[in-house]
Design goal:
The protein is globular and about 50 Å long. The chain is built from 17 helices and no strands. It has helices at 6-13, 15-24, 32-35, 38-68, 73-93, 104-120, 127-155, 160-188, 191-207, 217-221, 228-257, 259-264, 269-296, 300-318, 323-348, 354-382, 391-404. It folds into two domains: 35-220, Growth Hormone, Chain: A (Up-down Bundle); 224-406, Growth Hormone, Chain: A. The longest helix has 31 residues, at 38-68. By secondary structure, the chain is mainly α. Helix 4 runs antiparallel to helix 7. It is 77% helix and 0% strand.
């Protein structure tokens, strides 16, 4: 018997011999799925959560730094606008770039560069410098975030929704606790030490992704052939989800913009703060569950239900005259946002399509920008009822998603095909 047959003979004698032989194989001969999956998903989740924690801390620390440098409220507003617009531009960049550029290496380098931009904040003594660096950081986050979502789709498409949901819950909790951490740290620590800590947190978690084996390019760009009718239906569904993401984010942020109007009705600051937190905590508790439900069935169903629930919550908030009604409305909004957001991102990451993932992400960002402007403009004339303006686009996008999904139903249940 040839010596080359000995390993298979030993494998037949012992059930564990084949497993030991497989583990002794060189690292470069093993398959990508064997080397990654759960561990890689955890590293991706850690990098995204670290970025959310630093972002939440900066929302408090940067305005304080601007105030210390002699800046005004208009400077703070300009900083938030610069970050949001550059974030949107970074996300939209992927709609014009080929899919094979959306590699984990690009994502890791972009997020690490955003951490360097945070460290550089300590070198800027003026508000103009802080605004400029915050804009640079937002653009780098916009470039690095979509490839991480599509990378998750290549690990295990059947569990994509659960992973996106659990990571969304962790990011929400980190972003919620970030302002508290930032407010305490910026008072206790020197500014340069605080910004350096936030930056190195983002940099180390992002650079750790470079140590994870990158999937081959043919995996990243593999897309099955589709008929013209399915392609048109998918394009309509992508547009409908973009509109839904815009309206959902605008409706969710309208309560923050309407805070002065609620105060004029006699609502306490504590009650308004509790209402704002109620939505975030509700969504953090339900995001992972929404992702698991999306893994088991059609993604369009929870999206449609979520948008309709958001419309109901928006009506309650617009009619709120007490803290109790406001908290209930925000909880309902949290349920609707959880039902919509994670399934929408799951569908967008179908087969690792970076274009769709960036379009849906841009919808959420556009809702943050446009929703704040429109709600603030209407609040001057119709008070808290300005929130009702988002009921129509919410219901319209829900109807459009239900109609458009019929033509591409085979794309919704199993992203990996």
């Amino acid at each position: 018997m040839s010596r080359f047959a000995i390993p298979s003979l030993s494998a037949a004698r012992s059930p564990n011999a084949a497993e030991r032989q497989r583990r002794r194989r060189p690292r470069w001969t093993a398959s990508y799925r064997e080397l990654t999956d759960t561990a890689t998903a955890r590293w991706i989740g850690l990098a995204r959560t670290a970025e959310a924690l630093a972002g939440g801390a900066l929302t408090v620390a940067l305005p304080i730094s601007i105030a210390r440098s002699g800046g005004t409220a208009s400077d703070v507003s300009a900083m938030f606008a610069a970050f949001a617009v550059s974030l949107l531009l970074g996300q939209c960049l992927w709609t014009r770039l080929p899919d094979h550029w959306a590699t984990p290496t690009v994502a890791a380098i972009a997020l690490a560069a955003s951490g360097m931009a945070i460290v550089a904040l300590a070198t800027q003594p003026t508000g103009e410098g802080l605004i400029a660096l915050r804009a640079v950081q937002g653009g780098l986050v916009g470039v690095g975030a979509p490839p991480l979502v599509t990378w998750l789709a290549h690990l295990d498409g059947e569990r994509l929704g659960a992973r996106l949901g659990s990571q969304s819950s962790a990011r929400l909790l980190a972003f919620t606790g970030g302002p508290l951490v930032g407010g305490v740290a910026i008072e206790v620590l020197p500014a340069h030490a605080f910004y350096a800590g936030c930056g190195f947190l983002v940099m180390t978690t992002a650079l750790a992704l470079l140590a994870v084996r990158t999937p081959p390019v043919d995996i990243l760009t593999k897309t099955p052939p589709m008929g013209e009718a399915v392609t048109r239906s998918r394009s309509r569904l992508t547009l409908s989800i973009f509109v839904g993401a815009f309206a959902a984010t605008a409706a969710a942020t309208s309560t923050v913009i309407l805070t002065p109007e609620f105060r004029s009705l006699g609502l306490s600051a504590t009650g308004i703060g509790a209402a704002l937190s109620a939505m975030l905590l509700t969504r953090a508790a339900l995001d992972w569950r929404a992702g698991r439900l999306a893994d088991r069935g059609r993604c369009s169903t929870p999206m449609v239900v979520g948008l309709l629930v958001l419309a109901v919550g928006t009506l309650i908030v617009g009619a709120s005259g007490s803290v109790t009604a406001l908290v209930i409305g925000r909880i309902v909004k949290g349920v609707g946002m959880a039902a919509f957001a994670t399934p929408a991102l799951r569908w967008a990451a179908h087969r690792g399509n970076i274009g769709k993932a960036s379009i849906v992400g841009a919808g959420f960002t556009c809702g943050l920008i446009g929703g704040s402007i429109v709600t603030g403009w209407l609040a001057a004339s119709v008070s808290v009822a300005a929130a009702w303006i988002w009921v129509l686009p919410l219901t319209a996008s829900a109807w459009s998603i239900s109609r458009s999904s019929a033509g591409c139903s085979e794309l919704e249940t199993n992203p990996q095909g």
